[in-house]
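Worked Example 4.2. Consider the chain below.
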Amino acid sequence: MPEITGISEKRNRARLYVDGDFFAEIDPGAVLDYGLYKGLSLSQEELEEARLAGEKALAMSRAFHYLGYRARSVGEVEERLFRYGYGERTVGEVVERLRELGYLDDWRFARDLASERSGKYGPRRVLSDLWRSGVDDSIARQAVDEEFSELSELEAARSAAERRYNTEEGSDALARRVHGFLARRGYSPGVCTEVAREYRRGE
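Applying the procedure from the previous section yields the following structure tokens:
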């Protein structure tokens, strides 16, 4: 059976070592509640139960701290908690609780991000940003489609180019720069070509 080979406490956290390896960081209260001590042998199921009980409060606190800076997607919160070493059951239960409390909502997150960035970037870039945030593909596409259905991508691209290049005279070189600028911002190839053509000399 697995054996607890070490328990160290620091800053209101207890680090638990099992069979010589780090096992979990848990609330010190769980050490007392489960009667954990060095040399104690427990089944894997008993260890996992103690881990879940001891990790949840710490993981929830870290999640709230992470959400305090800005809205996050479910994927971002999961990734952050796994990076801290919390177990899969702990992360799953914390995320579910945050959903119930209204702190995590991927549809709202996707819709808000698409709205915020649509004035600066094209749909391809916004969709890519949502993917990188861990938003499910179907949710990301729906949010982008709804946001850009009310906008003219061509007009948005023209506005972006005008803000960047409004003082320059037309030329083939400028047209190429405009095309590259818009492509990097995620506008579709046809829109990039159309707007870039307007910056050629004499047009």
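Residues 106-149 form one domain. The mean pLDDT is 89. Compare this with Example 4.1 before moving on.
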